[in-house]
Design goal:
Helices cover 36% and strands 21% of the residues. By secondary structure, the chain is of the alpha/beta class. Strands 2-1-3-4-5 form a five-stranded parallel β-sheet, with helices on both faces. Strands 6-7-8-9 form a four-stranded antiparallel β-sheet, covered by helices on one side. The protein is globular, with a radius of gyration of 34 Å.
């Protein structure tokens, strides 16, 4: 793979599904100057053809794909977990963006946008993919009952998959790599989503909650993700112990009555009613 003449970063092999000729001309000139290998596709391409292209990233405008856009996007993201997918399209609703990201897209860019911003977002996605590949070479990570497999973009408990989405896997991988350190929400967002977190965005909290639910269902005896309120999250597998039983919850046992010993025989002429057990002779 050739290197970019600017900065020496490894070149990217990119495909773009778009029909905006003006935007494509500007983008193509910039990518050629960077030494990237890029091609423009006219529509939906079967995932197996994308595999043959050996792409690092795919930029797609779902408006070209019609009613099948969501199904195609999900199929591509599922079939090619190592491929960075960036949606670049016109104005959209929050629901559309959320659905696209949950289907597996790594980023969503709204047109009109500057080609430099799109390129920067592609670079961020590709960096994350290459870091994930480097971690995959290091082998699986075992944490509590969970086995994290970067080579499969998945985590397992007792051989059963947690069925994590790609974003959920990136989140558990990032937290587990931090080795018990507290990661701030802003840092998590930057490293998983690839850009700065907008004020009021609760995506990190939402994905942490979903990840916790999947972990709790498969590994209820362990606690994995710990909240540091006002800061962020820490990953540290800890066994869940049952609540200790309080002394107040246990009824006190009645003290056993002392066993009565045989009474000493009284001596004729002694009064045994005297205090302190002293025997007093009768007058």
């Amino acid at each position: 793979m050739s290197t970019s003449p600017q900065g020496g970063a490894a070149a990217v092999r990119l495909a773009v599904i778009d029909s905006d000729t003006g935007f494509l001309q500007v983008l193509t000139r910039r990518l050629d100057a960077m030494g990237w290998q890029q091609r423009v596709l006219g529509g939906a391409v079967p995932p197996e053809e994308l595999v043959a292209m050996r792409l690092n990233a795919l930029v797609v405008d779902p408006m070209l794909l019609g009613a099948e856009a969501d199904a195609w996007l999900e199929r591509v993201c599922t079939s090619l977990p190592g491929l960075g997918v960036i949606v670049c399209t016109g104005r959209s609703t929050v629901a559309q963006r959320v659905r696209g990201l949950r289907l597996g897209a790594d980023d969503w860019v709204t047109k009109p946008c500057h080609p430099e911003e799109l390129i920067a977002r592609v670079e961020a996605v590709v960096r994350r993919r290459r870091r994930a590949e480097a971690r995959a070479d290091a082998g699986p990570v075992v944490a509590g009952e969970v086995e994290i497999r970067p080579d499969q973009f998945q985590a397992f408990v007792a051989g059963g998959s947690l069925e994590l989405t790609r974003r959920e896997f990136e989140l558990i991988q990032l937290l587990s790599d931090a080795a018990g350190q507290v990661l701030e929400r802003e840092e998590i967002y930057q490293r998983v989503w690839g850009y700065a977190m907008a004020h009021g965005d609760r995506s990190v909290d939402v994905f942490v909650r979903k990840l916790r639910q999947k972990l709790e269902r498969r590994s209820p005896g362990w606690s994995y993700i710990h909240t540091h309120f006002g800061i962020g999250y820490r990953f540290a597998p800890e066994p869940v112990h049952p609540e200790p039983v309080s002394d107040r919850d246990v009824p006190a046992a009645a003290a056993p009555a002392p066993a009565a010993g045989p009474a000493a025989p009284a001596t004729p002429g002694e009064d045994l009613s005297a205090p302190d057990g002293h025997r007093v002779a009768a007058g």
